[in-house]
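Below is how a single chain appears once it has passed through the pipeline. First comes the sequence as given, then the structure the pipeline wrote out for it. We keep one example in the README because the format questions we get most often are answered faster by looking than by reading.
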Amino acid sequence: MLLSLLVFLPVLAMLLLFVIPDGMHKMYRYITLGVCVIQLGLASFLFLNYNSGSGALHSETSWFLQERLPWIFLDLGRLGKLNIEYFLALDGLNSYLVLLTAIVMLCAAWVSWSIKQNRKGFYALFLLMCSTVYGTFIAMDLFLFYLFFELMLLPMYFLIGIWGGENREYASVKFLIYTIGGSLLILMVLIAAYFSVIDPVKTAGFVGQGVNAHDVQLLLAKSQLPSSVQVHTLNISYLTDQANYVPGSVLHALSLHKLWMFSVREWCLLFLLVGFLIKLPSFPFHTWLPDAHVEAPTPVSVVLAGILLKIGGYGMLRLALPLFPGEMHHFSYVLAFLGAFTIAYAAMNALSMTDIKKLIAYSSVSHMGFVTLGIASLTVEGIHGAVYQMFSHGLISSLLFILAGVLYDRTHDRTIAHYRGIASVMPKYAIFVTVAFFASLGLPGFSGFIAELFSLLGAYAGAMEGHYSVLLVILAVIGILITGGYYVWTLQRMFMGKYSYRSSWTRSQLLHDLTPREFAVQFFLVVLIILFGLMPGLLMDKTGSAINALTELIK
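Resulting structure:
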C-alpha cells in the first residue's frame, strides 16, 4: 500500500482543497506542504530500506516492493485477450527518482508563497501533477505508465498558462504541442507491443490444466499456441523477455518486417528515443523548454527542471534499452552525437543569454546532454553517470530556479545587466548563488562532479569500444569549459563591484537578503548537493544492481 499511498495521497488532498472555503487560502499552502512532507518521509523510508535485489532486470527478484492487481481484461476474439494490470513496483531504476520527486516537490511547495492568484486552483493542479509524476516513475504496466505520462501534461499546461508571465499562452501551447507529439510516438510503440507480447502466466490458465508459463513459452516458440488463447499484455516485466514475443509479430527479435530503410523494431526504438528526447530535452527538440521556464512561476520551474525532464532519461532506461537492446547498438552513435552536441550547443546559448532564468534554462538543456551521452555509451560507468546526473541535476537546477525566483520576487526583473554588486547587499544570497553555480559546473565536492565524471568515463569507454568517435567526448569536455565561462561571467557581472541597480524601480525599493523561509529551503538543497557529492555510494549502492543487469541485457 505504500506505493499507492505515494501516488494517490496528493489526489485525496486535492479533493480536500475543494471543500475548504476560499477565504481560508492559507490552508491550501499548509495542506500541500504537509502532503509533501509526508511523501518525503515515505520516499526516504523506502530509499533507505531499499535492497537492490538480484537477478535479471524486471524479474520478480529485482523488485524491492510491488503492488499488483488485475484491472482491465477484454476478450477480443481472434485478436486474443487483453490484460492490463494495476502494477506498481520499486527497483534500482526508479527508487532514487521517487526520492528526488519527494525532495523537489517539497521545495516547490515551500517556495509557492509568492502565488497570489487563484490559490485553490494552483495547489489543486500542483497536487495532481505530484500524483502523476509518482505514478509515471513506479508504473510497471506500459498502459498505466502512458496514462500517468499523459495526465501529467495537463496540470503543467494550466500551471504555465494561467500563472505564468506575459507570454504564458505561447509557452504553454508550445510545451503541449511538443510533448503530445512525443507522446503519440510512444503510443505507436505501445500499440505494436500489444500485438507482439503475451502474458505466459495468464495464457497458461486458458491452455489447460497442468500447463505452466514455461510450457506456454515453448508452445509459442514453436508457433503451436492458438491466437484465441493468447493473453496479450503490456506488463514491462514480460516486454523485456523475448520468450514472450509472438513469432512473426512486428516486434519479435527475428521479425523481417521492414519499413523503408529500417526494420519495424528499429522504427519503434526511434519513436521511443524521439519521444523521450523531447521530454529530456535534447537538441533539436529543446526549444520548448527555455520558453516554458521563462514564463512559468518559480515553483513550476522548479518541478519542471527538477523532475519532469528526468522522465525522458528514465523512459530510455526503463523502456528503450531493455526492449530494444540490439537495436540500441545501431543508434548509439546518433544518440551520443545528440548528447555531446547538446552539451556544447546549449552551453553556447547560455553564454549569450541576458535573462538569468533563460541562462539557467539553457544550462539545464546542456546538463541533460550528459544523461543522453551516458546512456549512449552502453557502459556501466556511463549509465551510472546518467543516473547520477538525473538525481544531481534535479537538486542543483531546483536550487538555481529558486535563487532566480528570489531575485524576481523582489524586482520583477531578470535582466543580468541591470544588477551589479549584489553581494554587498545580499551576502547570504550571494553565497548560495556561488555554491549553486560551482555545483552546476561540476566542481569537486558537489554532486555534479560525480555525475559528469562518470558520464565522461563511460563516454570514453564507449568510444574505445567503437560505438562512436572519441571526438564526441572532446566536444562534451568543451561544453564543460563553456559552462564554467558563463557561470563565472554571470557572477562577476551581477555580484562583484559596487552595488547598483538599473531599472524603472525607485531607490526606496532596494534589494534585501534572504528571509528565513528562503534560507531554509536553499540550505536544505545545498546540504543534499554536498552530501551526495562527498558520498556517491549513497546513491550508487542502490542503483548498481539494476544498472549491471541492464548493461548485461544490452550485451
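The longest strand covers residues 65-75.

See the next section for the split statistics.
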